[in-house]
């Protein structure tokens, strides 16, 4: 298989590839946004309720941690099938790009939560103790100390999550989720067309590289350590 063959296929099917790429970006963007909106507060709660945390609550932390661990341990394809009733309830169907956002989001939330918890663990305890000594409330410490100090690692976690969601979105294509994964299955695997498989892999690599490059650039700008 030559580069010219791949280029020729792209030129003849550019609409298909561009549409599939847009679907992938759409799935990753929406699921990532909702995943961050829920996962970041969840990670903060896990951190502040742990033993020795700002608002220590060991029993609550264990229960929440167990729920997050269960969410992280379920393979994505199994998750997609398991929550089909929920997806149909929310979207009206379990097939299509929009429907794939539901399992992508549910898969992202516990992943983000653990990454944020890990990012907050890197904040020196001395900074928190100093803020407490000055009379800062827990919410003030979270907003003005923990999150700003952990911001470079948090942003790196965002990049990791988006890259992971790209791979998840490709898996969603195997069950009619749309995007580049769907093109790879329908036009590549079922038709035994290696060119299509190669093109979709290249497009996925390009997306990952773009996300990683933008994420790294943002982290460098905010990291003053």
From TrEMBL:
<dbReference type="InterPro" id="IPR000515">
    <property type="entry name" value="MetI-like"/>
</dbReference>
<protein>
    <submittedName>
        <fullName>D-methionine transport system permease protein MetI</fullName>
    </submittedName>
</protein>
<feature type="transmembrane region" description="Helical">
    <location>
        <begin position="90"/>
        <end position="113"/>
    </location>
</feature>
<dbReference type="Pfam" id="PF00528">
    <property type="entry name" value="BPD_transp_1"/>
</dbReference>
<keyword id="KW-1133">Transmembrane helix</keyword>
<comment type="similarity">
    <text>Belongs to the binding-protein-dependent transport system permease family. CysTW subfamily.</text>
</comment>
<keyword id="KW-0812">Transmembrane</keyword>
<dbReference type="GO" id="GO:0005886">
    <property type="term" value="C:plasma membrane"/>
</dbReference>
<dbReference type="InterPro" id="IPR051322">
    <property type="entry name" value="AA_ABC_Transporter_Permease"/>
</dbReference>
<feature type="transmembrane region" description="Helical">
    <location>
        <begin position="194"/>
        <end position="219"/>
    </location>
</feature>
<keyword id="KW-1003">Cell membrane</keyword>
<keyword id="KW-0472">Membrane</keyword>
<dbReference type="InterPro" id="IPR035906">
    <property type="entry name" value="MetI-like_sf"/>
</dbReference>
<dbReference type="GO" id="GO:0048473">
    <property type="term" value="P:D-methionine transmembrane transport"/>
</dbReference>
<feature type="transmembrane region" description="Helical">
    <location>
        <begin position="154"/>
        <end position="174"/>
    </location>
</feature>
<feature type="domain" description="ABC transmembrane type-1">
    <location>
        <begin position="21"/>
        <end position="212"/>
    </location>
</feature>
<keyword id="KW-0813">Transport</keyword>
<feature type="transmembrane region" description="Helical">
    <location>
        <begin position="25"/>
        <end position="48"/>
    </location>
</feature>
<feature type="transmembrane region" description="Helical">
    <location>
        <begin position="60"/>
        <end position="84"/>
    </location>
</feature>
């Amino acid at each position: 298989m030559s580069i010219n063959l791949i280029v020729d296929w792209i030129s003849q099917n550019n609409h298909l590839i561009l549409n599939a790429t847009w679907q992938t970006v759409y799935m990753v963007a929406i699921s990532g946004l909702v995943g961050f909106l829920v996962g970041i507060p969840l990670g903060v709660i896990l951190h502040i309720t742990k033993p020795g945390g700002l608002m220590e609550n060991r029993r609550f932390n264990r229960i929440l941690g167990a729920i997050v661990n269960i969410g992280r341990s379920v393979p994505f394809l199994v998750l997609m099938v398991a929550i089909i009733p929920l997806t149909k309830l929310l979207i009206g169907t379990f097939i299509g790009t929009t429907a794939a956002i539901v399992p992508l989001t549910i898969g992202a939330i516990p992943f983000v939560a653990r990454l944020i918890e890990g990012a907050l663990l890197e904040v020196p305890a001395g900074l928190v103790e100093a803020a407490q000594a000055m009379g800062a409330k827990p919410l003030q410490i979270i907003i003005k100390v923990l999150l700003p100090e952990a911001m470079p690692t948090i942003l790196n976690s965002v990049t990791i999550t988006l890259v992971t969601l790209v791979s998840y979105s490709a898996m969603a294509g195997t069950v009619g989720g749309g995007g580049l994964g769907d093109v790879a299955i329908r036009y590549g695997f079922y038709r035994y067309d290696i060119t299509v498989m190669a093109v979709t892999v290249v497009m996925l690599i390009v997306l990952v590289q773009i996300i990683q490059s933008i994420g790294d650039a943002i982290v460098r700008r905010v990291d003053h350590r």
